[in-house]
Write a structure and sequence with these properties.
There is one protein chain. The chain has 19 helices and no strands. The protein has a domain of 227 residues. By secondary structure, it is mainly α. α1 packs across α5, α1 crosses α7 and α1 packs across α8. The radius of gyration is 24 Å and the shape is globular. The N terminus is likely disordered.
């Protein structure tokens, strides 16, 4: 393709990670003023609509972009351009067959859906978000096409464009509608209209790039012919359905977990108000836990088409090199986040959650246990991607359900003890992700001819993280003798200074211990200069 630039998987991962960081920042700037504009009730209407949208989006787009990415990468490696076009056209039909009904459901049946959710006033938000179900299917198809060609730039830019529209237009619409009508339900609808407009802008941008890229596809080998539409659809769904089931299963397990621990808390003597407060603190801890994990997904999204292309061409050394490089980068991100957050959990929760007294004690415990999950969850995300790239999409699903059963069992057992209560929930998460990580490791070693040395490649980042954690603790302990968490300045210093010290120490340890290799650097943009700068 004349217009397409294939990127190394780390180059692509870097682009996606940068986009993720920008989107996270924009999201923070969006939610804080939005809550001030539409209030607590309006924010509840907003979230009600978004929860419905998330379920529909999960069903329609969880697995198909990955399936497209894998299949297009394989066909493109063989020069079978006709098959690339066939895959896209088939996937587009599947996407539209789901997106259109979902959009009609949300737009035309907004009021019944709102009543079903026991929030009748959320109808405007649901209706305004309805078209997004269709638009996001278009967006997912375009992203799957570009990712299959190992070009992550369109996906990255479209994510930022979508978030920026949500921020500017969503807040403006919410403020304008509330000012003109003083109707909170309508203002919530205006806020979520920014999401729909963002999806539309993202779809238009990707379509503009897609048209040029699609026209520039070379004819390839004239002797090669594409598979039938039926076979192509069957192959796409064979990959997509297990991934979708896995994602939906994870959502279901999360919903069941909430029901389990809330029921156990209420049955052991806690009042509804006390149980709700504990759940709110745990939800805040989960929000912080999800931040570093969000930066692992770009690694898997970028690695899958690279691994698939190398497998298709029989380049098994390249496959293993890519997988081991991905494991090093995954560890380089997850280890410092987990170990650092374990050390500074208390000041972080005081700063971000605003907790004091017994609530701060509880949030510190929850955050410290959850921080351990960061490494296990990151390991699971990467190993899932590796097995999917090797054509074993069913195994991660089975392992996830086993881990989910462990999670619910441990959660029920521990939260039923009033002395443990909500503290048992993150322990259940550790047990869950540890179980899945162990099963994934065994599965990879059994089903992959030359499995990557995951644990070996995580050793040096782990050692670097331990040294960093010691430095973070030393700085925090020293400063805590002077500053307290009673003031905003004290919170900022007790969070910022240890983290800054940790970044410096960790960077030095990574270079000194050669936790990142010259080969890793060469896969990055300006890799030669980076390697030279780091003396690798």
């Amino acid at each position: 393709m004349a217009e397409q630039k294939k990127q190394s998987f780390l180059h692509g991962a870097a682009l996606l990670a940068a986009a993720t960081a920008i989107v996270k920042v924009i999201g923070a700037f969006y939610k804080i003023p939005l809550n001030a504009i539409i209030g607590t009730k309006g924010f509840a209407y907003f979230n009600t609509a978004y929860n419905i949208y998330t379920v529909l989006l999960l069903i329609s787009t969880a697995g198909l972009p990955v399936a497209m990415s894998r299949m297009i990468s394989a066909a493109n490696s063989l020069g079978n351009t006709k098959q690339v076009k066939r895959i896209y056209k088939t996937a587009q039909v599947i996407f539209l067959s789901m997106g259109i009904p979902f959009a009609i459901l949300m737009t035309c049946f907004a009021k019944p859906l709102a009543v079903f959710q026991e929030q009748p006033d959320a109808w405007a938000a649901i209706a305004c978000l309805g078209p997004s179900a269709f638009l996001m299917c278009l967006v997912a198809a375009f992203r799957g096409f570009f990712q299959g060609h190992r070009n992550m730039m369109p996906t990255s830019v479209s994510q930022v464009l979508e978030a920026a529209c949500k921020l500017v237009l969503g807040l403006a619409a919410a403020w304008a509608i509330k000012s003109m009508t003083a109707q909170i339900p309508l203002a919530a609808g205006g806020a979520i209209l920014g999401v729909t407009i963002g999806c539309g802008a993202s779809a238009l941008y990707l379509f503009w790039l897609f048209r040029k890229a699609y026209k520039s596809l070379e004819e390839g080998d004239p002797t090669q012919s594409p598979d039938s539409y039926t076979k192509t659809a069957r192959d796409l769904l064979a990959i997509a359905v297990p991934i979708t089931i896995g994602s939906a299963g994870l959502q279901l397990i999360t919903l069941l977990e909430i029901k389990v621990y809330m029921g156990q808390l209420l049955s052991t003597g806690f009042t509804q108000d006390a149980a709700d407060t504990m759940k709110g603190i745990y939800d805040m801890s989960l929000t912080i836990f999800n931040m570093p994990c969000a930066f692992i997904t770009p690694i898997t999204v970028s690695a899958i088409p690279s691994i698939t292309a190398a497998l298709t061409l029989g380049e098994h050394k390249q496959v293993k090199a890519t997988e081991e490089s991905a494991s090093r980068i995954m560890a380089l991100i997850s280890m410092p986040c987990a170990l650092g957050l374990f050390v500074v959990a208390r000041p972080v929760m005081a700063l971000l959650g605003g907790y004091t007294g017994s609530e701060l004690d509880l949030s510190e415990t929850l955050m410290r246990v959850l921080s351990l999950c960061i490494v296990f969850n990151s390991f699971v995300l990467l190993t899932n991607g590796i097995m999917q790239a090797h054509g074993h999409a069913n195994l991660p699903v089975v392992n996830m359900f086993v881990g989910g059963a462990v999670k619910l069992s441990v959660c029920w057992l521990l939260t039923g003890n009033p002395d443990i209560a909500i503290r048992g929930v993150p322990v259940a998460s550790v047990a869950c992700f540890l179980t899945i990580a162990t099963l994934n490791l065994f599965a990879m070693n059994r089903c992959i001819a030359e499995p990557p040395h995951m644990l070996r490649n995580m050793a040096r980042p782990f050692l670097s993280g331990i040294i960093m954690a010691a430095a973070v603790f030393a700085v925090y302990f020293g400063l805590s003798q002077v500053f307290t968490l009673d003031s905003t300045l004290g919170k900022l210093i007790l969070v910022g200074a240890p983290i800054l010290a940790g970044v410096v120490v960790y960077f030095g340890c990574v270079i000194k211990l050669k936790a990142i290799t010259r080969e890793d650097c060469l896969l990055l943009p300006k890799g030669e200069k980076i390697a030279k700068l780091l003396h690798l």
